[in-house]
Amino acid sequence: MLITLQHYLVVSGLLFSVGLAGVIMRRNLIVVYMCLEMMLAAAALALAVFSRYNQNMDGQVLVFFVITVAAAEVAVGLAIIVSLFRLCRTVQTKDLTHLKF
Amino acid sequence: MIFWMPSMVFWFLAFLLLGFAVGVVAFRNPVSSALSLVGVMLALAAMMIHAGAFFLGAVQALVYAGAVMTLFIFIVMLLNLKEETGAHIGWAALVGGVSAASAFAWIVYKSVSLMPPLWLARVVRGDAQALGKRLFTHYQLPFEITAILLLVAIVGVVMLSSRLTIHEENERKMEAGGCSSANGNKEGGTC
Questions:
Q1: How far is B114 from chain A (nearest CA, A)?
Q2: Is A15 among the domain residues?
Q3: Which of A85, A91, A95, B37 could pair with A29 in a Cys bridge, judged by C-beta atoms 3.0 to 4.6 Å apart?
């Protein structure tokens, strides 16, 4: 059986949904952030394969930008988590409910 | 023989990818989750190379499995996160998460299965030369803007991590003068 575009899309979608489940289920903020990164990477895989399918480099250029933005985003997000930990001494989402009425 | 070998590699990588992904969600210890995420990113890089995006696979392995995961493991070590005791996933969260994820996966599967089989082209252009030509001609301006974005991220991270919190300012005051510790902590305890 030859591998088609659909195979890659299903793998990408499954990786995205596992990441979504992790974001909803986990209580540790850092693990939630890891699952978020996983969802982003799943979308990048789909873009790269669509680029191969269309015989067009634009999708791969877009993945390149996505990886760059993701690296910057991880740095800022982890800095926010660290300063949250310095303020509250916890990274459990059940303890961080100050925006709740 | 030639035709089923690439598909064997694909299935191996897909199972590796999804196995590590489930590991990220299921492990109690954040360090185990982070190491599983390294596995996910490496398998994803291998899958991008298998799909023909050679340069992106290399960048994915270097940036994600190298730089980003080092940052994650460093933060886990810095915050001294221990293995979570007790139930690390609640029942309501389990039901909600699994149903949301399976709903999404079902939507993807249904929409994909309606298409006719879309064969990938034989011609593969994913090397650094092809990507670089496109990047430095047609996408020159976004590439330069990315540099500004990285600069803004650096400045933001330094700003976020250099400021003292209220607790730390109180500790400094107590170490310096030893006074005003009673009313200082009242407004500080936001958490």
A1: 10
A2: yes
A3: A91
Of A97, A94, A40, A101, nearest in space to A67 by CA:
A40
A56 in reach of chain B (CB within 8 A): no
Residues on chain B touching A89 (C-beta within 8 angstroms): 191
Q: What stretches in chain B show pLDDT beneath 50?
A: 1-2, 180-188
A62 found inside a domain: yes
**Structural domain count, chain A:** 1
A32 touches chain B (CB under 8 A): no
CATH assignment of the domain containing A36: 1.10.287.3510
**Does A17 sit within 8 Å of B124, measured CB to CB?**
no
Range of the domain at A79: 5-95
* Fold held by B1-84+106-126: Four Helix Bundle (Hemerythrin (Met), subunit A) (1.20.120)
Cβ separation of A21 and B97 shorter than 8 Å?
Answer: yes
Residue B119: phi and psi, rounded to 5, are -75, 140
Q: Is residue A87 part of a domain?
A: yes
Partner residue facing B25 (CB), from A22, A49, A60: A22
Give me the interface pTM, i.e. the ipTM: 0.93
CA gap A10, A15 in Å, rounded: 9
B35 → chain A, closest CA residue:
A34
- Facing residue for B75 by CB, picked from A37, A82, A95: A82
Q: What is the pTM of this model?
A: 0.87
Question: What are the CA-CA distances from residue B2 to residues A52, B5, B6, B73 (Å)?
Answer: 20, 6, 8, 41
Q: How many CB pairs under 8 A join A and B?
A: 254
